[in-house]
């Protein structure tokens, strides 16, 4: 019996889950969640050839935030309860515990485990002041709250851990409440930044955009195996138009703006990733009909037409793209697209950050 997937935007990782757990399924390259016609929600393990190797049920209306490094545990957030997270055992499909932030705050929809898996880090925003907070939860004590630190700015949108490192990176979007300005008005700096922190909350470095770019807010970032971070930042030009810059940064180095003259988009950049085994990055926007590939060397641009593309992700070998009409694509060097003939379960898929 054949089924059809309907993919929606999200993000994707190569999970470091216990090999003993996955040994009966094969190598899991990507983790995803999906809702089947609002009847049931599932967690899927996907190979880099596009096969679903593992599935389990999740509560409805939940979004996957993080996957544990060595245990079959996942952190999910209910779309209707942004102040609560659930930790689930995806082997027994049972609730382990609930994590709640203060009533004056909301989780930002992103989380990450420490390198050894003993701690979970979440990012929160004060509902009124928009201050960002990084909170540490200890796994061995049932995810009790250990510490709380400043995220290093306002409106944090994403948190990553540098590969094979205990260094955390928070993308703070800055002040998002500045009213739309005409092109004749001097932009007000939003002070968006990347804040690099230790697990103990020490601020190791703050990457602040040059003054001429400070009207931009960081909206997405991705990290390569060698610790290089790519980020996209946008500034509002009118009520629905965004001008965008793309840059790269490494701890201790200066920031490089890859491309400042990107065309204006009617939507913000939704996802930015590194291309495996190539000095390039790829990005998509909301409701995009193409993937844009930018060279890290000179910012040169090429495009891959893909109607209704809504998500894109890479592991060390392949890049996977999904469209909102239910198709999954395996992309080879962005000069050849292979459409998967297999049709998955009939799900709306969200990939984990």
Considering the protein shown, what is the CATH homologous superfamily? Answer: YVTN repeat-like/Quinoprotein amine dehydrogenase
Please trace the helix and strand order, writing H or E for each element. Answer: EHEEEEEEEEEEEEEEEEEEEEEEEEEEE
Radius of gyration: 20 Å
Roughly what percent helix? under 10%
Based on secondary structure, the structural category is mainly beta
Q: What proportion of the residues form beta strands (DSSP E)?
A: over 45%
Q: In the CATH hierarchy, what is the class?
A: Mainly Beta
Q: Tell me, briefly, the overall form.
A: globular
Mean pLDDT across all amino acids? 78
CATH fold-level name: Methylamine Dehydrogenase, Chain H
Number of strands: 28
Q: How far apart lie the N and C ends?
A: 31 Å
Instruction: Please indicate the count of domains.
Output: 1
* Low confidence ranges: 1-20, 177-186, 341-350
CATH architecture classification name: 7 Propeller
How are the strands ordered across the major sheet? 21-22-23-24-25-26-27
- Major β-sheet annotation: 7 strands, antiparallel
Total helices: the number is 1
Question: Can you describe what's shown?
Answer:
The protein is mainly β and 353 residues long. It has one domain: Methylamine Dehydrogenase, Chain H (7 Propeller). Helices cover 1% and strands 52% of the residues. The protein is built from one helix and 28 strands. It has a seven-stranded antiparallel beta sheet with strand order 21-22-23-24-25-26-27, with no helix packed on it. A hairpin with a 4-residue loop joins strand 25 and strand 26. The chain is globular. The relative contact order is 0.16. Mean pLDDT is 78; it is low at 1-20, 177-186 and 341-350.
């Amino acid at each position: 019996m054949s089924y059809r997937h309907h993919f929606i935007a999200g993000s994707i990782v190569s999970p470091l889950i216990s090999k003993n757990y996955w040994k009966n399924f094969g190598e899991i390259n990507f983790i995803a969640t999906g809702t089947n016609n609002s009847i049931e929600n599932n967690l899927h393990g996907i190979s880099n050839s596009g096969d679903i190797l593992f599935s389990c049920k999740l509560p409805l209306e939940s979004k996957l935030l993080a996957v544990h490094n060595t245990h079959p545990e996942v952190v999910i957030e209910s779309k209707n309860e942004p102040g609560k997270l659930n930790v689930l055992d995806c082997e027994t499909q049972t609730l382990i515990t609930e994590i709640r932030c203060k009533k004056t705050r909301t989780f930002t929809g992103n989380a990450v485990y420490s390198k050894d898996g003993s701690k979970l880090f979440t990012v929160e925003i004060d509902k009124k002041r928009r201050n960002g907070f990084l909170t540490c939860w200890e796994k061995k004590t049932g995810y009790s709250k250990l510490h709380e630190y400043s995220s290093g700015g306002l409106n944090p949108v994403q948190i990553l851990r540098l590969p094979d490192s205990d260094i955390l990176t928070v993308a703070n979007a800055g002040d998002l409440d500045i009213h739309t300005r005409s092109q004749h008005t001097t932009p007000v700096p939003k002070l968006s930044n990347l804040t690099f922190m230790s697990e103990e909350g020490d601020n190791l470095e703050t990457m602040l955009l040059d003054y001429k770019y400070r009207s931009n807010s960081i909206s997405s970032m991705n990290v390569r195996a060698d610790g290089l971070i790519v980020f996209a930042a946008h500034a509002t030009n009118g009520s629905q138009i965004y001008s965008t810059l793309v840059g790269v940064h490494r701890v201790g180095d200066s920031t490089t703006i890859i491309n400042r003259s990107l065309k204006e988009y009617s939507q913000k950049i939704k996802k930015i990733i590194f291309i495996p085994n190539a000095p390039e990055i790829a990005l998509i926007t909301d409701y995009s009909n193409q993937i844009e590939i930018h060279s890290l060397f000179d910012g040169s641009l090429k495009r891959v037409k893909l109607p209704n593309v809504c998500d894109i992700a890479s592991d060390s070998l392949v890049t996977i793209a999904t469209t909102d009409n239910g198709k999954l694509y395996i992309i080879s060097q962005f000069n050849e697209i292979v459409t998967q003939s297999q049709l998955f379960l009939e799900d709306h898929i969200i990939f984990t950050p």
